[in-house]
């Protein structure tokens, strides 16, 4: 941990810099770009019925969008107001009135005609509901009836037959903490959260590489670093406020490098609405873009390190920070042997990057005194995601880019609540303040005053799959209690996921809105519980940002959904009904009492007990983790991890496909068209070179298919790395295989080999077994 404290926001230079302008034409007229002013007016119109409340949420609450940590309209990086369309789009979830009762109790088949966007727009869930098999409508029940039903079912099951899940939808640390405690109180370790499908490899990799699973630096470190490298991250789209930090970094001479299979336009040029100069003329962001093959990142990094070792052979000290390595790093010899064992030809073929380009980036970093590495799902959502992140850590350790100003490793979070989920223990591998090892378990048991189960809990994918186990199996999933989330739109192979959900005897959906998974049948019953938002939670709540800032968000006065309850209170109520004889040890008087216990159970969070008013915050771990190179590992050193190049399993003549985000927030879609490239949701991004080879025209109907599924759409020519395709998420999940998880962190694989064809060819030949034969060849070649 670090001893240096964060120094707070800095002023942004107001001096114009025409060298950064995209165009002298005001507001990017005529260009494909977001229309921030129009979008803001649209949001204001949507919230016109509750505009004063919406304004109070924006000015008093902590953002429930991405994890940059905007508190009111301010943050800890730059002075001045901060507001983005992502936060504005999410706003309506907090201000919507209840669903019209006629629609709420409509025929289930009518509700099933709606997609999740349409269901979301219906409004908030007003009161508890139940629907049993063959019921055509949801029926209203009381809270007591709902919770008694759930408690009775829990008492009848083995603890291994029930699971909990929590999304990152505005969930507070208090809620995560109580859920983690309640699950163990009820005897189960089957508890997981949304980070399993986004940044779980980041936590796992950073823990083994540098001893702590969180960002080692701050957003302020972007501003003034020599190189800011975004790997598999489209921060301009997913964390729009970050463009303001990029702008500030550019003005101080930082080089911004982007590594991605698709040359994302939002990372090239951006019109930042809260900066006058940028709003008028735009800002050039990326100084260079490296288009790597999907899954080729490890080979790319091997190439960079290979050049570093070649530089060292010619002139020791020209590439590696030997003083830092000697004092603070293990594993150099093993890593060097592994790197040097790969030929340049192997590295070029796997990465898709030429030797010369690998040398260019390696040389830039070798000649830089500082760098910050930022990454997201482009690196994590692979069956080798943990190795991807440890390879990034290898680069930082070899150059000493760790534990000091303008240096560090940053997994940039996509949601304001998710960083705290594992740190609060809402995770099958974690307890508050640490892992699930014997030492941590004994420590937390002393705080909780009950025994914690010792068996390994299931990750979310395993929980779902266990619904299909034989009836008598002790781990057959019979009750799934979900706080938010929609596995039909976040997990691979949605048809299979639906079959899993249908096999569960009792499903509980605790949420603020309906989504498509809420409407899926269950074998015994589906119970829906109305939840409060973070702004309605009595006593307020806290959330942890990407940079480990723990912010207090107060309860905000405004209209309420009459029967909605604070989520942590519901968990406690259920637990007391299941084990009434032990109800006193699971009781919390209020949200403040939870924070006081968090400070005891999770030592890093000592300070959270003092957060009670608007504006309260602290940063756990100090400004820089691993400060001065000292890592919280057993020997105080970082670990270089030697790894092989992963086998990509792409048969000759086929493509590798990955998923991307458009105008959306997580799986919530806000527009059918991407404002950065005009792509529609069913467009398949393909390079013109690949399309020409297949005689496919821009806009032509095409299909992408494999043994897992078929995706029909239109070809859209785009600057995508040849041999690779991109489709939108979650629509493209129909192509992704089920049951493939990363071995260390358990994240599902979200990339796969596919065939791309003209739609007319596919459908014309299908009856003569043509397509089936192609799929069979693909299945044989890819194993």
TrEMBL record:
This is FdhF/YdeP family oxidoreductase. InterPro entries: Asp_de-COase-like_dom_sf, MoPterin_dinucl-bd_dom, Mopterin_OxRdtase, Mopterin_OxRdtse_a_bac, Prok_molybdopt-oxidoreductase. NCBIfam families: Fdhalpha-like. The keyword Iron applies. It comes from Virgibacillus dokdonensis. Pfam families: Molybdopterin, Molydop_binding. The lineage of its organism: Bacteria, Bacillati, Bacillota, Bacilli, Bacillales. Keywords: Iron, Iron-sulfur, Metal-binding. Signal peptide: none annotated. Residues 656-753 form the Molybdopterin dinucleotide-binding domain. Residues 124-577 form the Molybdopterin oxidoreductase domain. The keyword Aminoacyl-tRNA synthetase does not apply.
């Amino acid at each position: 941990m670090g001893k240096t404290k964060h120094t707070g926001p800095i002023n942004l230079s107001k001096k114009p810099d025409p060298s950064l302008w995209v165009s002298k034409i005001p507001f990017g007229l005529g260009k494909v770009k977001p229309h921030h002013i129009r979008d803001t007016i649209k949001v204001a119109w949507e919230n016109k019925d509750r505009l004063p409340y919406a304004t109070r949420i924006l000015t008093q609450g902590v953002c429930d969008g991405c994890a940059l940590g905007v508190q009111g309209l301010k943050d800890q990086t730059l002075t001045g107001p901060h507001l983005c369309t992502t936060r504005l789009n999410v706003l309506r979830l907090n201000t919507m009135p209840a669903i019209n009762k006629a629609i709420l109790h409509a025929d289930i088949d009518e509700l099933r005609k709606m997609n999740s966007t349409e269901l979301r727009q219906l409004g908030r869930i007003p009161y508890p509901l139940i629907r049993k098999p063959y019921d055509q409508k949801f029926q209203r029940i009381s809270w007591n009836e709902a919770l008694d039903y759930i408690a009775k079912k829990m008492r009848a099951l083995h603890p291994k037959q029930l699971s909990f899940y929590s999304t990152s939808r505005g969930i507070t640390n208090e809620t995560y903490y109580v859920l983690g405690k309640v699950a163990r109180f009820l005897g189960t370790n089957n508890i997981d959260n949304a980070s399993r499908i986004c940044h779980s490899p980041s936590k796992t990799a950073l823990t083994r590489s540098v001893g702590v699973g969180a960002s080692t630096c701050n957003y302020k470190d972007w501003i003034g670093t020599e190189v800011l490298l975004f790997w598999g991250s489209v921060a301009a789209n997913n964390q729009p406020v970050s463009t303001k930090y990029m702008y500030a970094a550019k003005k101080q001479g930082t080089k911004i490098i982007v590594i991605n299979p698709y040359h994302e336009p939002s990372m090239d040029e951006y019109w930042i609405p809260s900066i006058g100069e940028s709003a008028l003329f735009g800002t050039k962001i990326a100084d260079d873009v490296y288009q790597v093959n999907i899954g080729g990142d490890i080979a790319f990094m091997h190439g960079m390190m290979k050049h570093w070792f070649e530089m060292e052979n010619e002139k020791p000290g020209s590439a590696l920070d030997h003083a830092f390595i000697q004092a603070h790093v293990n594993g150099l010899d093993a890593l060097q042997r592994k790197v040097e064992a790969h030929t340049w030809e192997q590295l070029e073929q796997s990465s898709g990057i030429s030797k010369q380009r690998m040398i260019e980036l390696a040389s830039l970093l070798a000649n830089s005194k500082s760098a910050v590495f930022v990454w997201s799902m482009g690196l994590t959502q692979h069956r080798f995601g943990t190795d991807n992140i440890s390879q990034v850590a290898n680069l930082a350790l070899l150059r000493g880019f760790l534990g000091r100003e303008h240096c560090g490793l940053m997994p940039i979070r996509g949601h304001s609540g998710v960083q705290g989920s594992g740190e609060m223990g809402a995770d099958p591998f974690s307890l508050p303040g640490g892992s699930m090892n014997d030492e941590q378990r004994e420590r937390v048991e002393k705080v909780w005053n009950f025994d914690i189960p010792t068996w390994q809990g299931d990750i979310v994918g395993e929980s779902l799959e266990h619904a299909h186990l034989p009836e008598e199996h002790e781990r057959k999933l019979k009750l799934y209690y979900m706080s938010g989330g929609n596995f039909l739109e976040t997990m691979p192979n949605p048809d299979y996921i639906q079959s899993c959900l249908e096999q569960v005897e009792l499903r509980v959906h605790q949420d603020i809105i309906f989504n498509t998974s809420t409407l899926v049948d269950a074998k015994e019953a589906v119970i829906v519980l109305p939840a409060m938002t973070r702004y309605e939670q009595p006593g307020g709540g806290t959330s942890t940002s990407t940079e480990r800032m723990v912010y207090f968000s107060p309860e905000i006065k405004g209209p309420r959904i009459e029967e909605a309850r604070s989520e942590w209170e519901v968990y406690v109520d259920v637990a007391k009904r299941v084990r009434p004889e032990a109800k006193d040890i699971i009781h919390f008087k209020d949200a403040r009492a939870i924070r006081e216990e968090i400070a005891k159970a999770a030592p890093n969070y000592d300070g959270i007990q003092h957060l009670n008013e608007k504006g309260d915050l602290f940063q756990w771990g100090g400004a820089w983790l691993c400060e001065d190179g000292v890592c919280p590992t057993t020997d105080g050193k970082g670990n270089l991890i030697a790894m092989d190049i992963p086998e990509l399993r792409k048969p000759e003549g086929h493509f590798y496909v990955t998923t991307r985000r458009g105008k959306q927030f997580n799986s919530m879609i806000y527009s059918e068209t991407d404002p950065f490239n005009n792509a529609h949701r069913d467009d398949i991004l393909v390079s013109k070179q690949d399309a020409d080879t297949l005689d496919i025209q821009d806009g032509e109907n095409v299909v992408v298919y494999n043994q897992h599924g078929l995706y029909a759409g239109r070809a859209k020519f785009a600057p995508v790395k040849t041999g690779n395709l991109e489709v939108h998420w979650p629509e493209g999940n129909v192509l992704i295989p089920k049951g493939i998880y990363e071995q260390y962190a358990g994240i599902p694989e979200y990339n796969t080999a596919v065939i791309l064809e003209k739609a007319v060819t596919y459908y014309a030949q299908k009856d003569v077994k043509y397509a089936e034969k192609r799929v069979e060849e693909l299945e044989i070649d890819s194993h």
